[in-house]
Design goal:
This protein is of the alpha/beta class and 468 residues long. The chain has 15 helices and 15 strands. An 8-stranded parallel β-barrel has the order 2-3-4-5-6-8-11-12, surrounded by 4 helices. Helix 14 runs parallel beside helix 15. It comes from Streptomyces javensis. It is an enzyme of class 3 (hydrolase). Belongs to the glycosyl hydrolase 1 family.
């Protein structure tokens, strides 16, 4: 049976600046924390860096033509802060802004809506040198940066996302250290989470001041679907703990203007949360025009036992001797059953339905967008140069089917952004994992749409999901 999505449903694809742009030292751009991290031996698989990536900085016109061929209604991309404001302070570099002006113009000329993400993990290194996200000033600097970008693009861009997956920035960057800047601390992730929340609020204020009234302002979260291993009280409590650290540390202040009391209790041995100042929570609880949800796989947890060794080893976020779960290090993560992607992540679309219905309840009246969803597989061209990826088609089919079901169940879901448009630099995994609907031959930078890209193009053109 063919499933039809509502008229006006937005079909898009997404990318992030450091993963695709390259041109790392051109036109005034200075290092971000990901430049520093990727150039540090042992941090990224095979020593890969984003110096060249997929050269989107020079090939964006070709890439936009490709998007048009794939019938995309929207392209979600991030702005490189250090390309626009190299030190994270002071005046903008116009050459950096000109790239994004040109990209936006190219998109609009092709009938594709630009969706701007202001921050996708690439903090200017100079701000990290001053303390990074654990320091309040970083949030203040972000608001200034948001105003600069809004001033340059606000007459043409109507959909804005402040932050992408702040959980990763805070807890993987400052807790487990598997993401830039690679710090392994217990207090710093909690301070970083608050200052990222504050950055969203201050940034949203700056956007409101600079943008036309019609502009939409959102944030993209990667909420965890946390399931207990059993119904034992200790396993239920483990799920509650991880839900607090993965989800409610952000949605509490964003949606309700308060940090959860159980989170504060769970982390009492680490901090008294005195870094939250009077007035912060009111700033963070800035009205949202939309909420972005990124989903890949669920989590299965239990109370840790003495036999669990490194309890977080199956949390799906990379190997580290340090936990990204401050105050809940003794929660064990388990591999969920089922088919897995090349990331080792179980394919389970029911988790996406769970998230859409949860945030329909928790954020009533706020439209939802799936701002990332996709899978990495070991894609290779055949003898004719064609890239067949039937497993990705099956993955997208299943996840779009539950998205359609969520709409039928009352979720105000307005759009879907495939992760990702092209194969690219996959953070600490370098170029070893391919998420793209478009295959990239890295030595030549040739782009080859995979069979999933052609499949997705038909869905985007018709708004219809064919029967599996």
């Amino acid at each position: 049976m063919t499933l039809t999505f509502p008229p006006g449903f937005l079909w898009g694809a997404a990318s992030a600046a450091y993963q695709v742009e390259g041109a790392a030292q051109e036109d005034g751009r200075t290092p971000s924390i990901w430049d520093t991290f990727s150039h540090t031996p042992g941090k990224v698989l095979a020593g890969d860096t984003g110096d060249v990536a997929v050269d989107h900085y020079h090939r964006f016109r070709e890439d936009v033509r490709l998007m048009a061929e794939l019938n995309l209604g929207a392209y979600r991309f991030s702005v490189s802060w250090s390309r626009v404001q190299p030190t994270g302070r002071g005046p903008a570099v116009q050459r950096g802004l000109d790239f994004y002006r040109s990209l936006v113009d190219e998109l609009l000329g092709a009938g594709i809506q630009p969706v701007v993400t202001l921050y996708h993990w690439d903090l200017p290194q100079e701000l990290e040198n001053a303390g990074g996200w654990p320091e309040r000033e970083t949030a203040e600097r972000f608001a200034e940066y948001a105003g600069i970008v809004a001033g340059a693009l606000g007459d043409r861009v109507e959909f804005w996302t402040t932050l992408n997956e702040p959980w990763c920035s805070a807890f993987l960057g400052y807790g487990s250290g598997v993401h830039a800047p690679g710090r392994t601390e217990r207090l710093a992730p909690l301070r970083a989470a608050h200052h990222l929340n504050l950055a969203h609020g201050l940034g949203a204020q700056a956007l409101r001041a600079a943008l036309p009234a019609r502009a939409q302002i959102a944030i993209s979260l990667n909420p965890a679907v946390v399931r207990p291993l059993s119904d034992k009280p200790e396993d239920l409590d483990a799920a509650r703990r991880i839900d607090a650290l993965a989800n409610r540390v952000f949605t509490g202040p964003l949606l309700r203007g308060a940090y959860p009391s159980d989170l504060i209790k769970d982390t009492a041995s680490i901090t008294d949360w005195s870094f939250v100042r009077d007035g912060d929570l009111a700033v963070i609880k800035h009205p949202l025009d939309a909420l972005g949800i990124n989903y890949y796989t669920p989590s299965l947890v239990s109370a840790a036992t003495d036999n669990d060794g490194s309890p977080a080893r199956h949390d799906g976020h990379g190997a580290s001797a340090h936990s990204p779960w401050p105050g809940s290090e003794r929660v064990a993560f388990h591999q969920t059953p089922g088919e897995r992607t090349e990331m080792g992540w179980t394919i389970d679309p029911t988790g996406l339905h769970d998230l859409l219905m949860r945030y329909s309840r928790e954020a009533p009246g706020v439209p939802l967008y799936i701002t990332e969803n996709g899978a990495a597989f070991d894609d290779k061209p055949d003898a004719e140069g064609t890239v067949h990826d039937p497993r990705r088609i099956d993955y997208l089919q299943a996840h779009l089917a539950v998205a359609h079901q969520a709409i039928a169940d009352g979720a105000d879901l307005r759009g879907y952004f495939l992760w990702s448009l092209m194969d690219n630099f996959e953070w600490a995994y370098g170029y070893s994992k391919r998420f793209g609907a478009v295959y990239v031959d890295y030595p030549t930078q040739a782009r080859v749409p995979k069979s999933s890209a052609r499949w997705y193009a038909r869905v985007a053109r018709t708004g219809e999901l064919p029967a599996a």
